[in-house]
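User: Sequence in, structure out. Go.
Assistant: Echoing your sequence, followed by the structure tokens.
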Amino acid sequence: MALPHLFIGNKNYSSWSMRPWLALKWAGLAFEETVLPLGGPGYGKSRIKEILDVSPSGRVPALHVGDLVIWDSLAIAEWAAEQKPDAHLWPLGANARAICRSVTAEMHSGFAALRRDASMNVRRRANTRAWAEDTRADIDRIQELWGSVRAEFGGAGPYLFGARSIADAFYAPVCTRFRTYGVKLDDVSQDYCNTIFLDPAFQEWERAAQTETWTLPQTDAL
């Protein structure tokens, strides 16, 4: 049987693609991947032909498992957790799982101002800047969230819930955004981001991002 096939966007820019990619790696699942460059005709309108060919939403990531197509980052991560329950991508404790799902969902659907003003760009290092009020509120909320979760559930290890979880996969791109734009973090948040940066799977992604030649000028100019 063919391996699952993950279609993703540029590793330098695609935060949505990084999330399920990390979840699949952390679950220990073998998969093939294809990077589909973002930009060009249809970009920003979910109408890039090469992506529409593999994803009904016109967006990446999309995971093909035989005839099954899963086209949402959280759905792909959930699929990985179900395939490899021993990887504990959701924490073992019922309370921890409930909070892990809550913080993951908050990232999945929220923080619009941070997304607007601090696009993911793994290679870039920009000057520190003054943030809009709503963006500053997003930054503060994320640090508050990380701190509270680490204090209650993180005692067994350096990730949000001790060991790697889907929540970490969803917040890893945020760590790169904070680094890219020189956001000053509290100690707990900086330590957590350093944990992400030292993770072998993250480092594999980062190395690939650094060697990509595609660019999105509109993102590089932010």
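User: And one key feature?
Assistant: The chain has two domains: 5-86, 88-204.
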